[in-house]
Amino acid sequence: MQKNLERPIVTAEKRSWFDRVESFGNKIPNPLYLFVIFCLLIAVLSAILSGINLEVIHPVTNDVVSIRNLISGEGLVYILQSTVSNFIDFKPLGLVLCMMIAVGLVQEVGLADSAIKALLLNAPRRFVTASIFIVGIVGNLASDAAFVLVPPLAGIIFAATKRNPIVGICAGFVAVAAGFTANIFIAGTDVLLSGVTNEASKIINGVEITPAANWYFMLLSVPFLTILGTWITEKIIEPRFPITADYNDNLAPAGGDDYQVTAKEKRALKITGLYALLFVLLLIATIYPEDSPLRNGNGGLVPSPFLSGMIPIIMTFFISCAIVYGIFAGTIRHFDDLPTLLANALKNVGGYIVLVFFIAQFIGWFNWTNLSMWLAVSGADFLAEIELPNVVMLGALVILAGLINLVVFSGSAQWAMMAPVFVPLLMLVGVEPEAIQMAYRIGDSTTNVISPTNPYLPMVLALIAQYNAKVRFGTFLSIMLPYCLIFISSWTVLFLIYYSLGLPLGPM
């Protein structure tokens, strides 16, 4: 069904600031080349700064730390001897690959697609908008699948309920993009970010955080973002873009078999849901006794083998759920299917592994030259002198992360660039690494919806064009900006209040 917007579509004749950001972002090299450039910059800076004998006092050991020259005999030996170890010992690599195996299998057997479709298509009409946001946020467990499925399904549902499908598409996109790092489950994003944070914290004292370090606040964030997103959609966006009475049944882009859940898939989903519930109950029964081997020596859970072993537990949960679904849905028919599906789960991970190689060298070189220590201590001294409250520094980090995200969309690449600088710097002035990581997550997520470098923007615009070909990027941006500005300000305020109250962001 083709529907026309009642409000006129206005296109700007002049290049807006957003166009300029987009143009600038397009000129930024691939993240791989970006880290190669960073490595070269570290080499040059280390040579210059070592020549002027810059020194700092290590905040933990009180030792004098000098800048080491990477462009020297000692530096050459270090590069040759550490290249492989930097890569192999980069902890986030193993953690992320483990999660990708599990989540990838969920996608390969069709569990992710069926779950998203079933949840959205069966949502009560009154709670359609809220359901879109919940599913979009939680659907990030399936990574790219959520971007591909939620926006078109949201458009379909809005059209079926006599609401503007363009608003539905935009709401679905916002749910996935702006809520990307929020979830009620521990996702691959948590694993990746915590791994990079831990690598960066080693510069100071090696404080380790678990993938669940932000989980408590994420549990609060999901309903918060859902309510906020629903309110923005229904009170701000929809009144501006009401549905018309003009329909063209011949041009309906929505409603094909691709967006339906078969009876067999529904049965498989029900059985998988029962299995998932049983798994959780057995896990609770295992960790509930005070003498459980998954608790610590004092009978507590923070810290404990349960938290430190969370990745294998999550892997087991997702892989076993995928197997159950695959058997009953018919996507796993033989024993030999499973190894093939597991291998396929990692078929798209090659680019990430290559990128990690250069990220690992960047962090390794940054640490070896002592540039990280010098920058952290010098920056911390400056912040101590101006005596900024921690909440102000965290708020500034949110804004900075959001701005950088406009030109560097890759969350892993962006945090790999920012963490070695900001984690040790802010740790030295008393900010916990989990709080630093959380501030980054808010800034990175909320500006995803307006980032010109977001690879899913063309897809969303193409979906919108199926309903109204006259909609241009400027109109789309006018829809996205209220979401972006209200999300980043409200979510940041919630986080800073939560942090100021001294509440734990998650189990450590």
Question: What report would you give on this structure?
Answer:
This protein has 508 residues and is an all-alpha fold. It has one domain. It has 21 helices and two strands. It has a two-stranded antiparallel sheet. Helix 17 packs antiparallel against helix 18. The longest helix is centred in the last third of the chain and has 28 residues. The N terminus is likely disordered.
In short:
The protein is an all-alpha fold. Helices cover 66% and strands 1% of the residues.
Largest sheet: 2 strands, antiparallel
Spell out the helices and strands N to C. HHEEHHHHHHHHHHHHHHHHHHH
Structurally, the number of domains stands at 1
Global outline: globular
Write out the strand line-up for the largest beta sheet, numbering strands in chain order: 1-2
Class per helix and strand makeup: mainly alpha
Terminal residue distance: 51 Å
Q: Helical region count?
A: 21
Low-confidence stretches: 1-13, 245-252
Strand coverage percent = under 5%
Roughly how much helix do the residues carry, as a percent range?
A: 55-70%
Number of strands: 2
Write down the Rg.
24 Å
**Average pLDDT rating:** 84
